[in-house]
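User: Hey, my collaborator sent me this sequence without any context and asked if I could get a structure. I don't really work with proteins. Can you help?
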Amino acid sequence: MARKVQVILTDDVDGSEAAETVNFGLDGVSYEIDLSDENAARLRDQLAHWVGNARRTGGRRSTGRRSGSGGTSNAAKIRQWAQENGHEVPPRGRIPNEVRQAYEAAQH
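Assistant: No problem. I've predicted the 3D structure and written it out in structure-token form, which is a compact way to encode the shape of the chain:
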């Protein structure tokens, strides 16, 4: 018998569907938080002033915001596209990167 385990991420702030996990640090402590596109954008906007005046000490270089940040409805669009194009995608939770990449490639 096959078993399928599905992980459903929810926004740690408001309980909505999470689109990404955001990592950040403060006072030598690293944190990660699962956020919807909207709440991730809010966090980045609120930290922008402080980050803009800070010195970088390590970590990976930012290549800009992740693409596909069109709000929570973007996940619904990707899911619909994936189902219509034969991709397996969970009804809730994180959308696999391969599916997101295929969706983005199909949009260009």
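In plain terms: The two ends are 40 Å apart (CA to CA). You can pass these tokens on to your collaborator as they are.
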